[in-house]
């Protein structure tokens, strides 16, 4: 499974957050695309429209398990996708900003 560490991510990297709505609302990475795992297959077209054509999709969830499932699916579809190891828990622990939809500080649920 292709995996990257939170510390490997650079500003501007495409990030797909597959956590559920309540987790997203509590706090997320700015600029991430949110498609919950429970809706992923039905909303797959949103990803193909938003993702960079020749770029990598960095998939994140709370700890890395759900995002691993989505990463495997995307790789099978021929998408250059990687799982973000440790998910939003490692994101927050690394001091990366976690925000709410209105831009205020959030937290990882």
UniProtKB/TrEMBL annotation:
| Protein name in UniProt | Sulfurtransferase
Q: Which InterPro entries match?
A: GlpE_sulfurtransferase (IPR050229), Rhodanese-like_dom (IPR001763), Rhodanese-like_dom_sf (IPR036873)
- Report the Pfam families cross-referenced here: Rhodanese (PF00581)
What domain of life is recorded for the organism? Bacteria
What residue ranges carry the coiled-coil annotation? none
Q: Which SUPFAM superfamilies match?
A: Rhodanese/Cell cycle control phosphatase
Q: Which PROSITE patterns match?
A: RHODANESE_3
The Rhodanese domain sits at 9-100
Native species of this protein? Streptomyces canarius
